[in-house]
Amino acid sequence: MSFEIFKQQFGEVTEYIIQDSVTGNRCVILPELGGIVRQLSLRKGLTLFSVLKTPPTPQTLKDDSKSASELLFPFASRIPEGKYKFLGQEYQLAKNESGTTNAIHGLVRKQKFNLEEQLVNADHASLKLSFSLKDLEGYPFDVKFSVMYQLFADGRFVLTYEAVNNGIEPCPVMFGWHPYFYLGNEDVEAWKINIPSDQIVTFDDNMIPTGTEPFAYDQPMLLHRKELDNCFIIKSTANTAVTELISDNKHVTLKVEQEIGEGKFNYLVLYTPPARDCVAIEPLTANVNGFNNGEGLNILASANSISGTITVSLS
Predict the structure, then answer these.
(1) Which three-class secondary structure state does DSSP give residue 67?
(2) Can you tell me the mean pLDDT for 60-75?
(3) Which of 9, 66, 78, 304 has its CA 20 to 30 A from that of 54?
(4) Residues paired with residue 193 on neighbouring β-strands, in sequence order
(5) What percent of the chain has pLDDT over 90?
(6) Per-residue confidence at 237, pLDDT binned at 50, 70, 90?
(7) Averaged over 99-126, what is the pLDDT?
């Protein structure tokens, strides 16, 4: 078999590597640090591109406050003042966004995940991780959250999440992934982007949604001198939607495909950091502040589950 899974030390934590020895495609996963993907390398022709930007050392990764590659659950983005109301009851989350009074990006960041399964097959290999949430501050529910990472021989990297309500009461759930992507040594100014949307979410000064407005840029859109920190409502006639990050100079396109439809990834956040060296492409299952506005929010009854898939590839 060309696929293998092996582990090695990364500072004080253990990382797992899924690798295809034929293509060189590989992903590096850290179960003990929020279950994140630390590296993702995919081949296009003769070039093996490292496409995920994350802090380079164990300590900078632990200290990272920008959520590089993090799994955002049971909510993503901001909840103002950390307050939300669910089924008539008010809840208070920790206010953990730097410089604000917001709660941000969920409760599983940097937590130690359990390794549930690792499989090696002829055409792909996979790793499944899980984390159980039970009676946490501001989220007194019993939910098992899991993520499966798969790397295929055709170059697809697939992330599939699942949430199962193990409690006796309904619970609100939202999931998002927060990867920063880049293409070689170019910066944002050199790229174009295809955004599968014609509606953008409007924000107030606290980055909380106030409504929507048309998004009418021609696609693909040049990123030169454009700053993005926006949420988009996905538009597609299929059951998936694709965001494309395009480098004409390197003749490569990075594709982030998100499953859409009822309960799936119907929102997308795009962000260009000040360094202009990467783009955050963040599929979300609900709108920013979904715990309060209910837009896209999944409500799980006891013993019910929800899942969804994100696929990354190069062309």
Answers:
(1) coil
(2) 95
(3) 78
(4) 221, 245
(5) 93
(6) confident
(7) 95
Q: To 5 degrees, how large is the angle CA 220–CA 226–CA 232?
A: 65
AA letter at 185 = N
CB 142 within 8 A of CB 167: yes
Q: Are the C-beta atoms of 93 and 84 separated by less than 8 Å?
A: yes
Q: Which residue segments constitute the domains of the chain, with CATH numbers given?
A: 9-314 (2.70.98.10)
What pLDDT, on a 0 to 100 scale, did the predictor assign at position 99?
81
Identity at 27, one-letter amino acid code: C
Q: Where are the alpha helices (DSSP H) in 113-259?
A: none
pLDDT in tens, 32-59: 999 999 999 999 999 999 999 999 999 9
Q: Is the pLDDT of residue 199 over 80?
A: yes
**Rounded CA separation 73/163 (Å):** 9
Instruction: Kindly tell me the burial class for residue 100, based on how many C-beta atoms sit within 10 Å of its own C-beta (0-12, 13-18, 19 or more).
Output: middle
Nearest 5°: the CA angle 85, 197, 109 is 45
Q: Tell whether the torsion through CA atoms of 64, 132, 165 and 117 is positive or negative.
A: positive
pLDDT of residue 1: 72
Q: Would you state the structure tokens that stand for residue 44, as one six-digit string?
A: 């296009």
φ, ψ for residue 235 (rounded to 5)? -125, 125
Strands 103-104 and 279-284, how do they pair?
unpaired
Burial (Cβ within 10 Å: 0-12, 13-18, ≥19) of residue 293 = middle
CA 105 to chain centre: 10
